[in-house]
């Protein structure tokens, strides 16, 4: 089956089916107890979802084994023919709900701001996201064909990929945290010291679960354990939507893989363009650990 081209919703490029459903998403009514996990795609959404879900359930591993991650943490704007939409799933779920989104800050349904919901934003450096996204485009066939790495990288730098510009996304959410309850975290920090970052999440969620549960959540959300766990890594999604034989969802889970993809020339061009796009912000990323 041919891959659908992206479709624009008020200037935002989206997976075609998501764009066609977006007017409904805009009307979504958040509950004050909803906790939102917001990310640019490939920044560590699934990892944070697993962490937050476990914290919410007091580290109850058995509960997390019963349902797949996309059931436990619905994807707000998700819409693919023949599958329950994110907003439909959420309608059936009692608060406190954990909700995931990839929307740029200006596209988040107004209700989340009105209800002053807590939000956790996870950001990952632009180069590793580009590499991860390239592989994800290949395996998740609701995206257009990414073409070659060179072709994809250009599109990514131009913001001509699903959910738009990485640069605008990370900056937009960074600015918004001045006025709302947003915990802004970094994938690189989570890699460096998962325990420390999970403690930040617990504190933000006002959960004190003790050392033993904390250690259990750290182990349970390690890359190796999540990779083996179909419930945590979309292993139960039909191959027509995600084909793990093309590229596994749990691909490498490291920082600095971009060095295996960027040529020296691509890296120089990327850095110069990055400086232009990111020059005005206090937001700092680590491209390697
Ligand atoms: P790579 O493709 O670089 O391996 P998202 O969930 O936002 O789509 O992000 C997916 C990326 O996060 C993938 O990156 C995936 O391997 C990585 N990831 C998922 N779970 C992880 C974990 N527990 N630890 C480290 N990285 C993880």
Automatic annotation (TrEMBL):
Its main location: cytoplasm. Its EC number is 2.8.2.-. This is Sulfotransferase. GO terms for cellular component: cytoplasm. It is found in: Cytoplasm. One of its GO terms (molecular function) is sulfotransferase activity. Belongs to the sulfotransferase 1 family. InterPro entries: P-loop_NTPase, Sulfotransferase_dom. It comes from the Eukaryota. Residues 32-281 form the Sulfotransferase domain. Keywords: Cytoplasm, Transferase.
């Amino acid at each position: 089956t041919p891959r659908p081209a992206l479709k624009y919703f008020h200037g935002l490029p989206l997976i075609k089916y998501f764009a066609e459903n977006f007017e409904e998403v805009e009307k979504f009514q958040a509950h004050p107890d909803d906790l939102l996990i917001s990310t640019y795609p490939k920044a560590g959404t699934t990892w944070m979802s697993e962490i937050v879900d476990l914290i919410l359930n007091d580290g109850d591993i058995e509960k997390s084994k019963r349902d797949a991650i996309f059931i436990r943490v619905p994807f707000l704007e998700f819409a693919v023919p023949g599958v329950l939409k994110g907003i439909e799933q959420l309608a059936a779920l009692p608060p406190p709900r954990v909700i995931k989104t990839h929307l740029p800050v200006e596209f988040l349904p107004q209700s989340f701001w009105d209800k002053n919901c807590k939000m956790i934003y996870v950001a990952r450096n632009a180069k590793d996201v580009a590499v991860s996204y390239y592989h994800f485009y290949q395996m998740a066939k609701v995206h257009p064909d990414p073409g070659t790495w060179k072709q994809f990288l250009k599109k990514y730098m131009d913001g001509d990929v699903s959910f738009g510009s990485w640069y605008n996304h990370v900056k937009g959410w960074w600015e918004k945290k001045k006025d709302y309850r947003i915990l802004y975290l970094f994938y690189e920090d989570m890699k460096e010291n998962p325990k420390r970052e999970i403690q930040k999440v617990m504190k933000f969620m006002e959960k004190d679960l003790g050392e033993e549960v904390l250690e259990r959540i750290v182990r349970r959300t390690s890359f190796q354990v999540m990779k083996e766990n179909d419930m945590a890594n979309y292993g139960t999604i039909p191959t027509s939507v995600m084909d793990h034989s093309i590229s596994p969802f749990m691909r490498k889970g490291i920082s600095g893989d971009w060095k295996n993809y960027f040529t020296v020339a691509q890296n120089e061009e990327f850095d110069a363009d990055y400086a232009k796009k990111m020059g005005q912000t206090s937001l700092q990323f680590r491209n390697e650990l």
